[in-house]
Each structure stands twice: as structure tokens, then as C-alpha cells.
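QA checklist item 7 of 12: single-chain prediction sanity check.
[x] sequence parsed
[x] length recorded as 113
[x] structure emitted
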Amino acid sequence: MSEEMKECPSCQCPYGYESGENEYTCPECSYVWTVTEAADLDELVVIDANGVRLQPGDSVIVVKDLPVKGAPKSVKAGTKVKNIRLTDGDHNIDCKIEGFGAMALKSEFVRKA
């Protein structure tokens, strides 16, 4: 076994230790992972209102009216948004909406088209 420690993909504890061949265990949350699983978990995962995973370039439909600060009208439910970009953070979708321009949306208010 090596003495190398890995960050836990579940709780970000920096003290994950090797507990088997290419297998690591977190001493704080007891999560067990492999090196290949950790590489997969680094990928950004964004889920829509129906629990479907979104990919960059997808088209989505807004599921409820969304008020826009500084705009006289809101983005209406049923508005289709094409070619989304995924980002890390609270508003995890960057897009352009016709009539509004560049905008950031929360994935919980859209569904995959």
C-alpha cells in the first residue's frame, strides 16, 4: 500500500487513504471509491426538474414563469432555450433567451426538451 492520501469525492476530506488495490476510504464519512470513480465524479453533473441529466448544448424548456430583475416582463413557462452551457454554482445554466439576452438559470426550473 502507498502512503498517498486522496481527497474524498463525497465530503472533500483530504485524508482519504488507500484501503485496497486502487481503492480508497474516507476516515470521516466512510465513503469508499476507486481512482476511476473519482475521475468520473469530477465531471460537472446538472439535473433538471424531472431528474434528467443535462449536457452542454442541450435544449431546455422553462417550467414556470421566472421574474427577471430589471426587465418589465418575466420569462414565461414553456419558453424553449437552445444550446445551454453548464456552469458550477447556484445558477448552473448559462444561456441566451430571445427577447432577454444572456442569462443564468437554475436547473430546477427547466426540463430537457
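[x] summary fact logged: The chain has two domains: 1-42, 46-112.
[ ] second reviewer sign-off
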